[in-house]
DNA2/NAM7 helicase helicase domain-containing protein (Serpula lacrymans var. lacrymans), 469 residues
Amino acid sequence: MEDRLAKVPVVHTTNFTDEVLSFLAKSTQDSFRLDQMKPTVQTHKFNTTWNDQKNHLKATADRYQNVIRKSGNQTVRVTVEDPSTAGKYKLQGTVANAMGSGANLALSGNLGGKMIGTITTIGRDGPTAADSARTIAILQFLQGKKKIKQENPWIERIWLMSDEFKWPEVWSAEPQISSRFNPKSASRPLNSSQTSAVEHMLSQTNDTRITLIQGPPGTGKTTVIASFVQAALRRGQNGIWLVAQSNVAVKNIAEKLADFGILDWKLFVSNDFIEFWHEHLYTDIRSNVILGDELLDPGIVKDLTNCRVILCTLSMLSKRALRDRGITRVVPLSTLVVDEASQIELGGYIPVFNLFTSIRKVCFIGDDKQLPPYGQEDIQDLKSVFEVEHLHSDTIFLDTQYRMPPQVGDFISQAIYDGKLQSNEFHQVTTDSMACYFVDVSLGQEESFGTSWKNAEECKAVLQIATIL
């Protein structure tokens, strides 16, 4: 043990400024507090079959949210009903392996002929790829293996902003692609605020290295992203990575690109998410999808040689396979576009900025007036990038919404956006119409229905209203 400890680099806190120590301390504390919010006990019902030969119980989940994953931190407890005695008892076990919708549980008893009541997982889920990469990054900073102020201008600019900050001079000397943008060349009409957003995303001057775009509901955030990608590709730009916190958000961007006729991209998605559960979501774009297992294929680099745009989740971007297999060498991360950025806790970007020195441009798109970062309700001082005060001056506001009727949009504008949000004047619901009704279905009760819920009385009310319309 002493020999191993002797090889561990010593952390000299006196080598850090108070500002850097505060950043490292808060990042570590936020990560710990978010981990502690993970449930320690989860009980679900599963379809089960018993394997006598292996003494395994196979548990098949009925919903993606119920899936059991293999984790070194967890054990399982199975409630068993014995029809011969009408008694109940509990068995402890572990997850032997898990794939797709099923997991094989290694238990301490024989369950042949028995009925399974509930299966409870005890212990928190293990860290994600992003969690592990974040821990490694902070440790490297503490051990002095990487220098924040000398080697990581993105962290310095976002977390440690000072009047002396300067972007690396060599970046300005690199060849620049024109940021001129003709909105008439886009596949969809763009209003003036959308045009400004695309122009800012295309620009890579020191003043525009970071682009913040606030887009209220229905203001065309994915249209802006697709218009940027279209314009960037026409200029010969490559190394564009489009990411979000959730797989669904990434999928929505991909569908918008396809709608624009843009097909020069690949979408990375984990097998666990798509197989058995969400294949139907990717039907129209399946030819552009690369599963997580396929990223391990030796031929993946050749397949991506001419690819200029990659889509994936922020967690997927932290996976070692992308670097170990040479994927980020073939498609270097030059421009990072983050959708739903207001839902991502600021520390969630640490792994990306630590791992990729090739980044020259970052665009954050979201709306801090909608969903906040996960955990902010319980951890009050969690922030998204939209709450970093010294970045506020860089924010572009998408000022026209096309989704809500003008009457609803105007109310939202006054109540939430200080009157800055305009409504589409050509909306099919005119200002002379009553745009919103509240219907009280007092007798309605929610009832379990398959893997979801239903309210029969509310269904009847909807049908009655539909006949009137």
User: Anything to note?
Assistant: The longest helix spans residues 18-36. The mean pLDDT is 90. Residues 33 and 379 are 8 Å apart (CA to CA).
